Amino acid sequence: MERVNPPRKVAERPYRGESASKRRSARSGRLTKALLNLVQELGIGTLTVSVVCERAGVSKRHFYEQYDNLDGLAEEVLESSFSAASERIASSTHQPTDGASGGFIAAAVEAILSTFDDARMAKLYLEAAVNRGIRDAKDRAVAKFVDSMLGVLTANSSPDPRAKLTAHLLIAGASEVVAKWLDGDIALSRREVVACLVAIGSDGARRIGDGNFGTAAAEMRSNPIQSRGIRY
Length: 232
Hints:
This protein is mainly α. It is 67% helix and 0% strand.
């Protein structure tokens, strides 16, 4: 994506009775809308700061007062969406207790579905893979979501690395699947998608809560036919 040396940021003053922070927020909203619309129309690989600013009606000077580059804008958009999903999960009446995590996982799946109900957001998520900067931004957004989930599923401030691996697999995998489903790549109904993800997610959440990550490996060791050719 286009990169230039950004201008020096300067303090803003009220203009026509509107505070600087309010004007920045309005510009951010227009830039977000422009970015998402252009990603859907043209794809992420063709975008530049100039193109996004022109669509948003925002000067490049004002753009660079808020962001270093388009990656920064995309990261803010992705993080905002995942933060909203985290808030929906946190406010859910279903919380994992005594190993009963089905309702909580269902709420998490619905939160992810809501995040990508906007087809533009789903396309931004999927196309992030072709741009290193935005891919890194996506990964950071997912990592924060994973940490939020682990905070609910385990009281340990330093969870088992296997718990983090499992949580990352669930969140990143579910996000990718939902985005692909919304893009028409998976021929299932919404109910079927939710049921499948809840079943898989509930098992993962149980393993995170119990700290039991070796069952599958143990079962494979005990069955030489299934484990043929696999080393542990």
